[in-house]
Amino acid sequence: MALSDRFLWGGAVAANQLEGGWNEGGKGPSVIDMMTGGSSTKMRRITDGVIEGEYYPNHEAVDFYHEYKGDIALMAEMGFKCFRTNIAWTRIFPNGDELEPNEEGLKFYDDMFDELLKYGIEPVITLSHFEMPYHLAKEYGGWINRKVIDFFVRFAVTVMERYKDKVKYWMTFNEINNQSNTSADIFGWTDSGVLFSQYENKKKAMYQAAHHEMVAGAMVVKKGHEINPDFKIGCMCSFVPFYPYSCNPDDIMTATECMHERFYFGDVQIRGHYPAFAKKEWKREGTKPEMLPGDEEILAEGKCDYLGFSYYMTNAVKADVKKDTAESLDGSSPYSIANPYVKASDWGWQIDPVGLRYALVTLYERYEIPLFIVENGFGAIDILKEDKTCDDDYRIEYLRAHISEMKKAVEIDGVDLMGYTPWGCIDLVSFTTGELKKRYGFIYVDKNDDGTGSGKRYRKKSFGWYKNVIRTNGEEL
Ligand code: BG6
């Protein structure tokens, strides 16, 4: 058997894309509550406050806030061993700078975790998934401001103490490395509450915000282990590996240099110090973040226990290509070029199951700590038939191919893999486009891009398929 019998099969979501109830239970507005709907050809806009007449898809999302009991029952029916979501920071500290938490928000997660545990489903909890309090972005300038470290640590310690007997698996910041694309504002906004387009030296601003986040993350890892020594606390990166387009040595070195960007954040959070290439880049480009004495020690003392990562696609790069990435939502670099050996989804995301094995091997050989695939999946347009079934065979095919490569990484390459939680196990709002029609789920939610629809849930064909995958611990695909 390839996978251990403790392998964490499950599914992943994010509070802001699922819960709705954006202003209920004392919740404050978050940065993502200021993002309008968009599409693959139309970027989501970030508005200055909530503007009447605009549509903000995350405000209602798919109403998990009220529907969570039924949704969790469906996940239990599939046999989930774990469920990855996050605690919305703004349910606990609505503005972010309060001294006392909002009890109603804490109670919501108490009840939700109890519901999961009732079925033996382990909560896997990210602390920050694209939804820092809007107030911290607006009034403090987001993570550029060092004061945000204290606010985040207060939030993290509050929830870790409160749920110390309910939650064992934690992650600090979701896809903290998205912001390395400083050309498209949605990444800096959702990672750090910063619009890098407003800064003359965008990269320097980004490294500054990221430094504060990583210092805060390291503090939280250390404090978390004091709160409960059994906690497993990971970091989380998006991993879109860069392939050299050809064996031309120039393409190889372009890919190597592009990969630096992919490793920057993991290196600090896992090895506890900045890599050599980062220091050279700061010097060369004048982008060194300001650090306080003691920061290096904090980073060294707060190394993560595991690496959670998302994997959706790879990207090929060629030395003599140079394009603008301002409108790119597919993890591409200025050197990216279509890979003739792989197909792409309707949203242009390249489908590359072998790339998942490549990702696992690359990350494991670099860091030698347990890995957790906390996102992977196929965003597609699903058709709900009249009899309320949905034949999403393309999704089954995608997941089957990826799981099969994942097993090779464990069996052949010896990767220590904790689990697999496909993204958007229940349909939810797309992060990059704000659409509902970019669906990932095993569970169909009857809701449309403009917010219309009954909100009812239906099992897709992949629901039964995934249930059997879990039942057989990945033996039957
Ligand atoms: C990751 C995020 O970027 O990919 C999720 O962690 C996101 O929040 C997922 O939803 C898929 O992206 P999208 O744009 O298809 O929703």
UniProtKB/TrEMBL annotation:
Pfam families: Glyco_hydro_1. Belongs to the glycosyl hydrolase 1 family. Transmembrane segments: none annotated. PANTHER family: ARYL-PHOSPHO-BETA-D-GLUCOSIDASE BGLA, GLYCOSYL HYDROLASE. The keyword Hydrolase applies. GO terms for biological process: carbohydrate catabolic process. One of its GO terms (cellular component) is cytosol. Keywords: Glycosidase, Hydrolase. This is 6-phospho-beta-glucosidase BglA. It comes from Blautia obeum. One of its GO terms (molecular function) is 6-phospho-beta-glucosidase activity. The active site is at E375 (nucleophile). Its EC number is 3.2.1.86.
